[in-house]
Amino acid sequence: SMPYRGAGLAGLAAVAGVAVGAVWGLASGVLPGGCAAEFTERIGPYRVGLWGRAVRLAREAPVWGVGPGRFGTPGDPAGRPHSAPLQLLAEQGVVGALL
Question: What is the pTM of this model?
Fold first, then answer.
């Protein structure tokens, strides 16, 4: 019996939403230059490039996505964008993300 469980879960959901929004903003190139450069330096340009590719694929097929397992890149042995929400959105679209 934990008091204020709903408020705690809402807070955690808000933090996760802010994190996903920041990753999406960085991948889309909408963050301010200094902020984006700092994040890119810390995270790595390769990973930010993969995130950008995931965002482009999600924009090409927003509803159904490009299909499971079709995100893979030749230069990436893992073949994933290193971000579960972006990978899900790129591969399965909004419908898959909602399910």
Answer: 0.71
User: Would you say 64 and 93 are in contact if contact means Cβ atoms under 8 Å apart?
Assistant: yes
Q: Which H or E run contains 44?
A: none
Residue 23 has pLDDT above 60, yes or no: yes
Confidence label for 9 from pLDDT (cuts 50, 70 and 90): very high
- Whether 89 and 24 have beta carbons less than 8 Å apart is answered as no
**CA dist., res. 31 & res. 12, Å (int):** 23
3-state secondary structure the chain: CCCCHHHHHHHHHHHHHHHHHHHHHHHHCCCCHHHHHHHHHHHCHHHHHHHHHHHHHHHHCCCCCCCCCCCCCCCCCCCCCCCHHHHHHHHHHHHHHHC
Residue 97 has pLDDT above 70, yes or no: yes
Structure confidence at residue 18 as a pLDDT band (50, 70, 90): very high
